[in-house]
Amino acid sequence: MTVKPKRDIEKGYTNAEFAAKLRRLADSLETGDKFEIQIAGERVYVPVRAEYTVEHERSDDEEEIEFQIKWSPK
């Protein structure tokens, strides 16, 4: 198996693009299928066994909500 290089990027999307990605994710969750997404030129395959969390952070000058999807490669 090929070891993938480490990666830590953040990619911005328009409201319409983000909504479309969330809809595709929701469809995958409901049907029990893996989720595929392309981020900054790399296709990522999220397995059905992934874990989903929502994180909320607050500081003095901003708030943030992160929808997180985590899994271990097998």
TrEMBL record:
It comes from the Bacteria. Pfam families: Amphi-Trp (PF20068). Residues 9-73 form the Amphi-Trp domain. InterPro entries: Amphi-Trp_dom. This is Amphi-Trp domain-containing protein. It comes from Shewanella piezotolerans (strain WP3 / JCM 13877).
